[in-house]
Amino acid sequence: MPHARPTLLLALALAAAVPLSVSVSAQTRAPVAASSATVDADAVAALARMGKALRALPQFRMHATTSTDYVLDDGQKLALAGTVDYKVNGPDRFFVDIQSEQQHRQLFYDGKHLTIYAPRLKYYATLDDLNRSSQALLAESASRYGLEFPLADLFLWGTPAFPTDGFQSALRVDSARIDGDATQHYAFRQPGVDWQVWISDATALPRQLIITSHADPALPSYQATLQWDTRRPVNANELAFNPGGATRIVFVPVALAAQDTPAGGN
Questions:
Q1: By the number of CB atoms within 10 A of the CB, which of 4, 173, 197, 249 ranks highest?
Q2: 115 in Cβ contact with 125 (< 8 Å)
């Protein structure tokens, strides 16, 4: 199986390749009129409060229903549904499960080792001796390992890894209810991307996200609606990887894997 290792690792990276996060199903009224060049200090402050609320969570479970736009060669867009589940305990332990009809990936981090597992293929790869916080790992995972975690900004908002001084636009749009939860809807623009977030009035946690990329003329979007469980304990055994009968493979950088990868999902 000469293609097994690079194919798996490329697919693992692509399955998690979501630069920011986007979500579209809020029950909003028409947007308020505002200049696209306005940076509203109150909108930036709301983002800071959300980051503070996220940083204050000692542990949490988060379930997201997602929709990702893929653009065909002829410009037609396809929206593919999926789910993302995070279980987080402390600053350096997490588990994430990423599922769609095309792929299923799981990632385990214990503060030292990051394991990437494909349950349908029964292959896994482990990066050893990382010795850093979840925040630091997610901030550099794309540049160092070619892995972009879905909804990684949940770990980065409110930290120096997510600066807010580069906004081209920031504004409050309206209020909305997401699954019965009263929220405030904000919109932001940064170089190359527009994104929106719906922040809970009760918890200051994000309930919905939408990110639209300007890198493609078709303007593909990523959407996620989030459900939070901050009360149920996250036990250590829920975050531990058990290889069972799975086969360990060598981690292959995405750039190298892309040179030797056949088409097809798994």
A1: 197
A2: yes
Question: Which residue type sits at 207?
Answer: R
Closest CA to 110 of 91, 136, 138, 97: 91
User: When comparing pLDDT for 15 and 141, which is higher?
Assistant: 141
Q: Residue 158's pLDDT is what?
A: 86
Are 4 and 261 in contact, with CB atoms under 8 Å apart?
Answer: no
Nearest to 105 by CA among 63, 149, 75: 149
| In the chain, % of residues over pLDDT 90 | 69
Pick the CATH number of 4-259 from 2.50.20.10, 2.40.10.10, 2.60.40.10, 3.40.50.1370: 2.50.20.10
pLDDT at position 35 = 46
Please tell me the total number of residues recorded for the chain in this structure: 266
DSSP 194: E
Helices (H), 16-125: 41-55
Q: 31 pLDDT exceeds 80?
A: no
In tens, the pLDDT along 203-231 reads 999 999 999 999 999 999 999 999 999 99
Give the start-end residues of each E strand in the chain: 59-71, 77-89, 94-100, 104-109, 114-118, 123-127, 169-178, 181-190, 193-200, 206-213, 221-229, 247-248
Domain boundaries, the chain: 4-259
Instruction: Give strand pairing partners of 39.
Output: 170
